[in-house]
Amino acid sequence: IKILAIESSCDETAAAVVVNGRDVRSNVISSQIALHTLYGGVVPEIASRKHIEKINQVIEQALEDAHMTLDDMDAIGVTYGPGLVGALLVGVAEAKAIAYAKNLPLVGVHHIEGHISANYIENKDLEPPFLCLVVSGGHTHLVKVTDYGKYEILGKTRDDAAGEAFDKVARAIGLGYPGGPKIEKISHEGNPDAIQFPRAKVGGGAYDFSFSGLKSAVLNYLNGCKMKGIEIHPADVAASFQKAVTDVLVEHAMHAIDEFGMDRFAIAGGVASNGTLRAAMEEACRKKGVQFYHPSPILCTDNAAMIGAAAYYDFLAGKRDGLDLNAIPNLKLGER
Ligand code: ATP
Ligand code: MG
Ligand code: FE
Q1: Is the backbone peptide bond immediately before 295 cis, with ω within 30 degrees of 0?
Q2: Span of 174-183, 229-238, 276-285, 313-322 with lowest mean pLDDT
Q3: Is the confidence at residue 202, as pLDDT, over 90?
Q4: Nearest 5°: CA angle at 164, between 158 and 168?
Q5: Residue 209 has pLDDT above 70, yes or no
Q6: How confident is the model at residue 50 (pLDDT cuts 50, 70, 90)?
Q7: Which of 252, 256, 251, 297 is nearest to 274 (CA)?
Q8: Which residue's CA is minimally distant from atom 29 of ligand 1?
């Protein structure tokens, strides 16, 4: 089964050709990061306009890289939520036009299901059930993947997503957008034990997360230093913040692994490309004898190959969408 996958939920215009869910023949990503950096974050209207400009050439490139044409495709997969509505609509409208013109089945994909499925691409042995921690710009979900396309959400963030916290702290210490990679880079020169930031605990849901308290603690620390005339070392702040986030994510994940007796654990989403987080998860899993999986950095942040992987398993399960498919900006994982 050859799938042309399209992703346009945020600020990456992406298309990929994926065969049988795990064999990526092409993966083209046109990032708008440079454009949005001027504004310190993604400007939705600009994102939509850029998608409409780029989408056709990105798809053409994906087909060319795969040495295939639309006539070789068996289905079209597209992200229809969650994300920015105007951005999603560009990909959805494009996918519908191709499906109509070529009389191909259309499969709408949940963006986070895509992030999780990115793990299938380079780990041919990975099959459900497994536990997955999704840490991205808009989500922090601890998910039990019970089968392909079947998800049980064990916990999620009550406020900021992990990636959002990285972005906000980066802005506060003057690193700019997008924050995650910049915090990671500068952290290499910092001391992760320099400042004791709180490891957020939330009452109720044992696996829920909260990152707004940590973000506020960083902001308070920075303000305190300024008022008292204490010199701020951005690398120490970044490294200490990164460690606090990592500690909480590792603790929750290991707790769930124990409670649910999982022997496979994967991470997904943009923050999953963070080296410190990966190393900590790898070490914690090794101690428990749990198999640890993670996608390469290029498959962690937004891309269409992951959408093609998810679309394939949806397609096998019989999922088909009509030409009335719409963008759903707040689509929940596991909802159809
Ligand atoms: P969502 O997937 O929840 O809809 P999104 O698509 O915007 O949100 P992703 O593209 O998955 O999010 O990930 C982007 C996020 O990942 C940003 O918040 C970015 O700062 C963060 N990120 C990227 N690389 C790193 C890194 N090396 N370390 C930490 N965070 C990172
Ligand atoms: Mg992005
Ligand atoms: Fe994403």
Answers
A1: no
A2: 174-183
A3: no
A4: 120
A5: yes
A6: very high
A7: 297
A8: 180
> For 162-181, how does the pLDDT look when each residue is reduced to its tens digit (9 = 90+)?
999 999 999 999 998 889 99
Residue positions counted in the chain: 336
Token pair for 262: 């999982």
Q: How far apart are CA 154 and CA 208, in angstroms?
A: 8
Q: Which ligand is nearest to the CA of 84?
A: 1
* Mutational test site, ligand 1, from 164, 301, 330, max ligand atoms within 8 Å of CB: 301
**Pair 95, 106: CB distance under 8 Å:** yes
